[in-house]
Amino acid sequence: MNKKLIILFAATMLSFSLAACSEAPEANADIAPPEVNQAPEVNVESAPPEVNLAPEISETDEVADADEEMENNINNDNEDGFSAESVFDSTIFEVPMTPMIVEIDEILFQDLYGIDPLFLVDFKAIMPAMSGQITEITVVQVTNTEYLNEVTELMEARLEFIQTSGAFYPSHVEIAQNGKVVANGNYVLLAVDEAVDELVANFELALH
């Protein structure tokens, strides 16, 4: 009898314990989860407008344009296509030349004549290798007819210098005084030589 009471009491206590466990507090569903800060949206369509920059012009392009313009002027004013050297060679053709002469290079030519290189397509010139000679023959090809008068005046100034300061012997004085500067088209001849008339005739013939 006592055992049955003890068992019944234990069963009752166990049922109360189970009931207490089943009544555990439920989680509060009303509590909202913490907010998460999201990064602001980026409007792709609001990108800054494009800026059209003017194309840069390099120094090389400017030089190329200047060269092209000069070449066009040369082609327009020198349709015959004769070079200064070819006209020079025709000018002295079959004219006896003293052996003591030298060809004038660009640096010496600039010193003697003072012509701006931009005014010339090309030139060819010879002068005495020593003071015992007087021959000087020069043919220049001008880039544009607008420079022709200035180039001719500088060639005449060179002739005047030869006449006043370049003739050291009596026989040379007359040759220098008979020297000539002749312009034809875009070409100018300076001729100081015993055969000056023949040189001028050849020069004129070469350009016809």
Task: Briefly summarize what is shown.
The chain is an alpha+beta fold.
Structure description:
This protein is an alpha+beta fold and 208 residues long. It has a domain at 82-206. Helix content is 45%, strand content 14%. It contains 7 helices and 5 strands; from the N terminus they run αααβαββααββα. It has helices spanning 2-22, 59-77, 84-91, 106-113, 148-166, 170-177, 196-206; strands at 101-103, 120-128, 136-142, 180-184, 187-192. A hairpin with a 2-residue loop joins β4 and β5 (187-192). α3 crosses α7. The longest helix is centred in the first third of the chain and has 21 residues, at 2-22. The radius of gyration is 52 Å and the shape is rod-shaped.
Strand percentage? 5-15%
Quick one: overall form?
Answer: rod-shaped
Structural class: alpha+beta
- Rounded to the nearest angstrom, the distance between the terminal CA atoms is 159 Å
As a percent range, the share of helical residues equals 40-55%
The number of helical segments is: 7
Parts with pLDDT < 50 across at least 5 consecutive residues: 23-29, 70-78
Radius of gyration: 52 Å
| Strand arrangement in the largest pleated sheet | 1-2-3-5-4
Mean pLDDT: 79
Sketch the major β-sheet.
5 strands, antiparallel
Helix and strand run: HHHEHEEHHEEH
Give the total of beta strands.
5
